[in-house]
Amino acid sequence: MAIDDARSATTRHVTADARFGADDRYCRHCREIALVFDPSAGRPRCRTCGELA
Fold first, then answer.
1. Taking the mean position of all CA atoms in its chain, how far away is CA 36?
2. Nearest 5 degrees, angle CA 48-CA 45-CA 14?
């Protein structure tokens, strides 16, 4: 059972990386690493400047 849990966690991590690449963490407006998903906009928003990614 523990092996299945480890595979599941790895799969979730890879899926998240594939959806949001390493460059997607940076805001293209202020260049801060501050993007968070905004459910009302349906995409990431910068916590520093407030612009949509």
1. 7
2. 115
Return d(Cα 12, Cα 26) in angstroms, integer: 21
Closest CA to 53 of 17, 12, 21: 21
The structure tokens listed for 42 are 């349906």
| Residue with tokens 């459910």, as numbered in its chain | 39
Q: pTM value? A: 0.52
**∠ at Cα 20 (3, 8), nearest 5°?**
10
Q: What is the pLDDT of residues 5-34, one digit of tens each?
A: 555 544 444 444 444 555 678 999 999 999
Q: Which residues pair with 44 in a beta bridge?
A: 37
